Amino acid sequence: MNKKFIRFSAIALLFAMNTYAQDQEPKQLDEVVVSDSKFALPKEKSGKVIVKITAEDLKKKAGQSVASILSTVAGVEINGNQSRNGKDLGLYIRGGRNHQVLILIDGVPVTDASGISLSYDLRLLPVEQIESIEIMKGASSTLYGTGAATGVINITLKKAGKKAIAGNAYVNMGTQTVAKNDNYDIKDFTQGFALNGSAEKFNYFASLNSTETSGISDAKSANDAVVFEDDRFSRVNSIVKLGFTPTKKLTLDFLANYDRMRNEFDGGAFADDKTNHSISEQYRIGFSPKFKYNKGELVLNAGASKIDRNFDIYSSWTKTVDKSLYQSRNVNADLFNKYQIIPELFIVTGGQFQFFEMVNLTPFGDIQKEKAKFSILDPYATVVYNSDFGLNVNTGARLNIHSKYGNNFVFNVNPSYTFSNVPLKIISSFSTAYITPSLYQLYSPYGNVDLSPEKDATVEAGVEVELANKKITFNVVAFHREENEAIDYSFVTNKYYNIFGKNIVRGIETMLNYSFTEKLKFQGNYTFSDLDRSTKVLNPKHKVNASLDFQATTRLAISAAYQFVSDREDLFGWPSKVVVLKDYQLVNANVRYELIKNRLSIFVAADNILDKDFVEKNGFSTRGRNIKAGLNILF
What we know:
One of its GO terms (molecular function) is siderophore uptake transmembrane transporter activity. It comes from Flavobacterium rhamnosiphilum. It is found in: Cell outer membrane. Residues 446-616 form the Outer membrane protein beta-barrel domain. This is TonB-dependent receptor. This protein has a 22-stranded antiparallel beta barrel. The chain has a single domain (3-634), classed as Maltoporin, Chain A (Beta Barrel). The radius of gyration is 24 Å and the shape is globular. The chain is built from six helices and 36 strands. A hairpin with a 2-residue loop joins strand 15 (277-293) and strand 16. The model is unreliable at 1-29 (pLDDT under 50). It is mostly beta strands. It starts with a helix and ends with a strand.
């Protein structure tokens, strides 16, 4: 265990207790979370440390992508977020990889059934359409099924306002350059608008967004005398949400969404290419009725998505351009009910159905949808008990009925206790999870139909302290995760296989928030991860994030942020060699000003102010000092 970290935690805890002795104001129980029960629950009653990024927090990070914002959360690392706009992303939570993290949009799981890891591509989603994000770490298959092994990212999109008609239009422009490069031409453009409103029993929200970026090559040149061409990235996003409330008890919500992404990319590490590009199109529809009754609420979260990905990749062997098509279809229906047995006790029961299907047409072999499909049916139940003397218990179980793998059983136990005489909450949990192999891992030319699902178990324990009417919040959580039968790829057999034995990940996550005054606030977190060799790739052992927010006037706000990422390991070449990527530090700043109150606001953001030249992934470019400015008009 890191001794400096232990000293830091002890000092922070003593400081918090000392402040409590000086100032004991009543708590404000106003913040709610939904990720650990699927229903709104006061954060104080939750037995998890759930990080919530609010709409106000997103304003402070204007100009950043979804990936860069998530990468500032304790325990979360998104490799590629500091590279050129359009770089493929590696999502790691607690040493896990993309396929072990489940992403929800408005409560509906989103995946790409044609992808290698059955994960969702965060590049498809613009931050301008997001209202808030909740991040819950730890095995969560009891509530959310396959894939929720190391964490759940629950994204809530923007909703209709109370006026009959309202909206906003925005435009952002910025530079896009690598470190030690004096070319600060405008290369990054984002623009869009949104309309929303409510009238009696109806409400609506519609948004259109587009992004166009160039200026940086995907791959990095190994020779400074050789300049690689810029690789462009463009994206168009549209969404329409309609709501109807026929009675006070019943609400009906509908969603239609279209995303299109075009991305140029190179031939790999240190390898330029002027031909490679991809076009991805996503079509999503959703339906979510909610019915409230005397002691509970019945909810259906249903959605369907179709993703088409076309790749043109130059082949150095044949000297031709290989064309590949990846198509996927996913259907999800999650029906669940909350019933309040007594004021302190409620039960959530539900059933979830999921269907996955893919088509893959490449020069190396095809996968037809008649073969590459499976379905999952999961009944589950969760019991939540919130006592009036400080004890909170969240426990549940799920039976996964898989069309190929039969039955899998998972469960969780999550007790916590809040002391009444001191501002201290103790949290703990034990939870299991499973990860189904993807259709690609099963049925592609590199697949293995004999693969077994990965199994995961996490135990965690920690404390949380809130003082001085939440002016100070400190928490620390230690976790131990065991991963069995992890799926990996063999470059010897060119097949996917299950790793024999366990991968073990241990770590500590700690956060400290301190409001010096109403206008000046500090947030910081530190993550320590002790990883097995097979999970070390691109995962830092130490990571620090800190930010300072200053509301100088009612119209002027200033934010500064710092990030430290320790040494990481990467694999390079054939046969693969371990390459150590050196640690790096980033300093960012953001200034926002309301020119016309509640009508017109502007921002200026500076990233990597010190212009540090660092490596995020071996052989690929990273951004240097860049400036972005934008304005937002409300009407």
